[in-house]
Structure formats: structure tokens, C-alpha cells
Write a structure and sequence with these properties.
Elements: H1 3-6, E1 27-28, H2 31-39, E2 43-50, E3 53-64, E4 67-73, H3 77-81, E5 86-100, E6 108-122, H4 126-138, H5 144-147, H6 153-158, E7 159-165, E8 168-174, E9 192-195, H7 228-245
Antiparallel strand pairs: 1-8, 2-3, 2-5, 3-4, 4-7, 5-6, 5-9, 6-7, 6-8
The structure holds flavin-adenine dinucleotide.
């Protein structure tokens, strides 16, 4: 039987490109696992090679099914160069903890990360572009786009949207304590995990806010002290639910 015949339809295909070799026990190719990492983050890094030079650009991403989107100004060199379809690798990572061991060698980090491979294309079709841009705004919370002054044609023209079907992907997670060598546990030094998370702060309303404007109900989840990854995951699930019922 070929490798393709054995593949799980809920998982991304596995090839030498995305097969996790180092610490493969931490890997998953399931859509659910990969999406859980992608959807919990607002920030991605898009890596590509232009004229032999590697670039790695931090930006905002959003997702619909197996399609990832990101955007930028039309002046962006990266995006103009992508027009013909360019191979890219997009990653999202979350730092969850600092792992302090009894030797430098065993110091580590707890993390969740996803690496997605595909070919990036400019979204030129006006309908698809407008739809994708609504998806970006509704990523904050479903329904945000409908509350805004609609985008005008100049704004849409000035924004470049890039899409990439995820061809292959991998997720890798370390969620564990200190892993010292047996003989080192007798060494008298503090060891342990310092948990780390990104949390939401207090709102800073715009000083030019019109009187009587209430915070939208959709923002209720963004409460000070909550973990951003939890809020973003919830927002994505709500967005998907709303899209299904459309
Ligand atoms: C916050 C953070 C801290 C880390 N700290 C360390 C560290 O101190 N030392 C260390 O060795 N590694 C660390 N890693 C893991 C690191 O990202 C790599 O997985 C590791 O270095 C192996 O790289 P490689 O290219 O040799 O992997 P390989 O296994 O050879 O990569 C093959 C394929 O596996 C997949 N893959 C590899 N790494 C990841 C990943 N992180 N997420 C999703 N898919 C992946 C990709 O599809 C890749 O093409 C850290 C990761 C994060 C997010």
C-alpha cells in the first residue's frame, strides 16, 4: 500500500518536508491539532526566499478551512513578488513556559507551534478579496465587520490580500516538566517550570469616542486578565459557527 492510501483524511498529508524528525513524539499532523495552534494566535511569521535571500515576515493571519490569509499594503515588496505563486512556510508559535533544569543542556521551553507549507497567491478577485477582508475583521469577534463604516474601493485596492491553501502542516507541542538526567537530580539547584502566557490588559478607549457608545457585546470575551489564546480560539469557533449558519 502506498503512503497516501494509509493517510488519515482528518490529517494533513505527511512528506519529507513536514515530517517531524527531531522529538517526533511531540508532533501531530491532525487538522484539529494544527488549527488549535493557528487559531490561538494573532501573529504568524511568513518565510519565503526572494532572489536567493530568505525573509521571515511577522504579520497577522486568519483562516477559513484549509486556507490561510494574510495581508499588507500593495507597496509591500514581498506581496508583489508573490504574484506568480511563491512557496512559503508560515509558522505560529506560543511560548507557554520556561523550563529550568539542573544542567544548561536540559534547559528548554514549553510551547505549541505549527508549521504550514503551501503556495501563496494574491487574492485579486474583488469578491473573494472583499470576503477575505471581512474575515480579518470578524477574526476579532464575529459581527465586527457589519458594525464598521464599509470599506471603500480605494481602501480595498490599497490592501493586498494573500491566500495559501495549506498543502502540508505539522504541529509540535512541548507541555512537560523538567527532564534532567537521572544522576543530575541530586544537584542542589532550583529547577522547575515558569509558566508564561499572553493576557489581555485594561481597555484604552479612543479619546475621540462619541458619547454614548457602548462596548460591543462581541468584545465581552476580551476581559482584562484572560488569556489571549483562549479568547482567539473562542472567536474562531464562533466565526466558523456563524459562517455555517449563513
Ligand atoms: C518557543 C520554542 C522554543 C523551542 N526551543 C527549542 C530548543 O531550545 N531546542 C530545540 O532543539 N528546539 C526547540 N524548539 C523546537 C524547534 O522549533 C524545532 O522543532 C527543533 O529545533 C527541530 O528543528 P529541525 O528543523 O531540526 O526539525 P525537523 O524535525 O528536522 O523538522 C522537520 C519538519 O518537522 C516540522 N517541525 C519542526 N519543528 C517544528 C515546530 N517547532 N513546530 C511545528 N512543526 C515543526 C516541520 O514540518 C519541519 O519541516 C522550540 C520551539 C519553540 C516554539
Amino acid at each position: 500500500m502506498t503512503e497516501i492510501a494509509l493517510q488519515d483524511p482528518l490529517a494533513f498529508p505527511v512528506s519529507p518536508r513536514n515530517r517531524v524528525k527531531r522529538k517526533h513524539e511531540r508532533a501531530s499532523y491532525d487538522r484539529e491539532a494544527v488549527f488549535a495552534v493557528l487559531d490561538a494566535g494573532f501573529l504568524c511569521h511568513v518565510a519565503y526566499v526572494l532572489d536567493g535571500q530568505p525573509y521571515c515576515t511577522p504579520t497577522i493571519h486568519w483562516r477559513e478551512g484549509d486556507v490561510l490569509y494574510w495581508h499588507g499594503s500593495s507597496a509591500s515588496r514581498m506581496l508583489r513578488k508573490l504574484e506568480g505563486g511563491t512557496p512559503v512556510c508560515l509558522t505560529v508559535s506560543h511560548l507557554d513556559g520556561l523550563v529550568l533544569a539542573r544542567t544548561g543542556f536540559n534547559h528548554s521551553a514549553n510551547y505549541r507551534s505549527a508549521m504550514c507549507f503551501g503556495t501563496a497567491h494574491l487574492v485579486n478577485d474583488p469578491e473573494e478579496k472583499a470576503h477575505a477582508l471581512l474575515g480579518l475583521v470578524d477574526r476579532f469577534y464575529p459581527g465586527r465587520a457589519a458594525e464598521l463604516r464599509p470599506s471603500n474601493p480605494q481602501e480595498i485596492k490599497a490592501t493586498t490580500v494573500v491566500s495559501m491553501v495549506i498543502e502540508e502542516a505539522s504541529a509540535k507541542v512541548r507541555a512537560a516538566g523538567v527532564g534532567d538526567d537521572e544522576e543530575d537530580y541530586a544537584h542542589p539547584v532550583w529547577a522547575g517550570v515558569i509558566p508564561v502566557s499572553m493576557t489581555i490588559g485594561e481597555d484604552q478607549p479612543c479619546p475621540r469616542q462619541l458619547d454614548g457608545i457602548e462596548k460591543p457585546a462581541g468584545l465581552a470575551a476580551y476581559r482584562s486578565g484572560r488569556r489571549l489564546d483562549d479568547v482567539l480560539l473562542e472567536a474562531q469557533r464562533l466565526y466558523e459557527k456563524a459562517a455555517q449558519s449563513d
